[in-house]
Amino acid sequence: MARNDSLDVADKVRLLRALAFQIRRKRPAEEAFTDVLEQEFRGGRHRLFRPASDALGESGFLAALMVLGLIGDEAAAVLTVVFDANDHRLLAGALEHLADHTERLA
């Protein structure tokens, strides 16, 4: 049986929306991402999400998004400014729009 070592579009959209929801509730981005990753671990997807968990601890929120393939270099450059603004509504909105964009491209 082949192993699924990447996220499909539905998973990417679901994760981005879950992060946006948690961040909109004024949870710190790293804490929200940790909770989302823990939910995935409980679902048995350790191999896929362990590198993101490691990146989150070592390099931060944006690096973990990149490891999972949720964002690319260009989006990371823009999200750096959004993340540094320390505005939970702005970050949640950006993640929600990325989810919408990803879904439209599918």
Structure, explained:
This protein is an all-alpha fold and 106 residues long. The protein is 75% helix and 0% strand. It contains 6 helices and no strands. Helix 1 (9-24) packs across helix 2 (29-42). It starts with 8 loop residues before the first helix and ends with a helix.
Short characterization:
With 106 residues, the protein is mainly α. The protein has helices at 9-24, 29-42, 46-58, 61-67, 73-84, 88-105.
Q: Mind describing the biggest β-sheet?
A: none
Strand % is: under 5%
The poorly predicted ranges are none
Q: What's the rounded overall pLDDT mean? A: 93
Cα-to-Cα separation, first versus last residue: 26 Å
Q: Based on the structure, what is the oligomeric state of the protein chains? A: single chain
What is the share of helical residues? Answer: over 70%
Shape from CA axes? Answer: globular
The chain-level structural class is mainly alpha
Radius of gyration: 13 Å
How many separate domains make up the residues? 1
DSSP summary, beta strand count: 0
Q: Number of helix segments?
A: 6
- One letter per element, helices H and strands E, the order comes to HHHHHH
Secondary-structure blueprint:
Elements: H1 9-24, H2 29-42, H3 46-58, H4 61-67, H5 73-84, H6 88-105
Helix pairs in contact: 1-2, 1-6, 2-3, 3-4, 4-5
